[in-house]
Records
---
Amino acid sequence: MCRTPAAGEAGEHTEICEEGRRLYRAALTSGAVGRDEAPGCLTALGLLTPSGGEPGTLVPVPPSVATTAQTYPMEQAILAQQRKLAGLRRAISQVESIYQETRHVGEPTIQRLVGASVISAALDEATRGADSELLTAHPGGSRPKGILEESLKRVLLAQGRGVVQRTLYQHTVRNHAPTLEYIRAVTAAGVEVRTLDEVFDRLIVCDRSTAFIPDKGGERSNHAIVVRDAGVVQFFVSVFEHAWERAEPVSFNPDQQRPSLLTEKTRLRVLRLMVDGYTDAAIASRLGMSTRTVATHLKKTSDLLGSNSRAQLAYFLAQTGLLDGPPTTGPGAASASAGRTPSGCSCEKHDDEDEANGGEQPGS
C-alpha cells in the first residue's frame, strides 16, 4: 500500500498501486471511504478528496476532473516560461539589426571570449557558417577523446558542404590511438592532415575571414580571441601555409595500423632544444610530449655518445656534427641528416615502442 504523501509531494506518484485501484472501485460503489484506508497514490493524484459533510471520510473524484486539477498548474507554469522565453528573444532581436550594422563598421576587429561554453558556441557558429575553407592547428600532442568526438561531427558536416579542410598536428600524435582513429576518419572523408615537430600555437581560420587564437591573458581552456581584421587573418594564414609546407603528410597504408612515427626527427628536435638551454619540462611543452619521453630521448643519445651530463652531451653533439644543417622537418629533410648519426647508428632504432609507451601528456 502507498504511504500517505506529505504536503507538496503530489508529483511523486505516477502509478496507482493495486490497493489504490481496489479502494477507488470501492469508493465509487459506496460513495465514500475512510481517510485511514486511503493509499497515498489516490490522495496525491487527487482521485479522493475530503467529504465536506463527514469528517474523516473521502469521496471519489472523476479521473478527468483530477487530471485537470493536477495538470493545470503545471501547464500554466510552462506557458509562463514559454512567454518569458519568447519575450527574451523578442527583446534581444530588437538590437540584432544594430549589431549587424555596426559589427563591420564600429565593432572592434578583435573580440575576447570568456567561458568554455561561449567559446564552443562561437566556434560552432563560425565553422557551420564556413563555406569554402577551414584551417586548423593543434599543438600539444594527443587530444582528449571527448573533444575528438565533438570535433569529428563538425568536420564531417563541413566536409559534406564541400569545405576544404587542412589540419596540422605535432608528430607525437602519431602514437596516440584515439587521435589516430580521428585522423583516419577525417582523412578518409577528404581532410588533409600533416604533422610537425613543433606547431606555432592553436589556430582556427574560417574562410580566411575569421580566426580563433588563444588568449594568453587567461586560462587557455576558458579564454580565446576572435580576430576579424583582414590583414591580421591573412598573416595567420601565411604562418599556417609556411608550417604546412614543412609538415609531413599523415598517410595510412593498408598493411600498417598507424603511420610512421618520425622518431628520429623528434629526437633531433629534442636535442636541439636541449642544446639551446631548454629544460625537459619546456621541451615537453613545446613538442607535445611527456617529460619522461624527453628524458628517454636524451638518455638514449647520451648512452650512444657516452656522455654523463647535459653539458657533456651538448659538447659531444657539437663534436659529432649530429645537429649540423637544417632541422629535419618537411619533405626531403631525412636525407639532409643522413650520415651524421654517430657510428652509423640510427636514432630511430627501436624507438617506436618507447614513444608509444612513453605516454604523451593529453592536450585539448
---
Amino acid sequence: MRTFLMHSKTNSRQQGSALIVMIFAIVVFFSLAALLININSRSQQSVSYEILGTKALWAARSGMEHAIQNVLPINQPAALCTNGSTTVIDFSGVDGNLQQCTASVVCASNFVSNEGMKHAEMQSTGTCIAGDFRAQRIIKVEVKI
C-alpha cells in the first residue's frame, strides 16, 4: 500500500504540469494564427500596390501617346511642343480601369541635333489613387520631328 500512495502523489504533481504545457501550446497556436493573418494582410496590400502601379504605368503611356499624336498628327505637318508646357489628362470620366488615374505630360525641351533634325523630349507621369494607396510611374520619350 505504501508504494501506491507514493505513486498517487507523483501523479497529482504531473497533472499541474500538463495544464502549463496546454496553456503554452494554446499561446503558441494563437501567436501563429496572428502571424498568418498579418502575412495575409500584407500580401493583399502588396497586390493592391502592384495593380495600382500597373494602372499608373498605363495612364502614363496613354498620356504620352496623346502628346505624341499632338506633336506628330496624322496627315498633317509636325508641330513642336512648347518648352515647359504641361498637359493634364483626367481619366475619371472614361469607362475602364483608369478611372482613378491622371496623366501629366510635360514637354521638357526642343532641340536640333547635329544632323539638323528637330527633337522634342517629353515626360509623362501617370498617377493613380485608390483610398490610401497611391502609385506613380514616369515615362520619358524623345521624339524626332
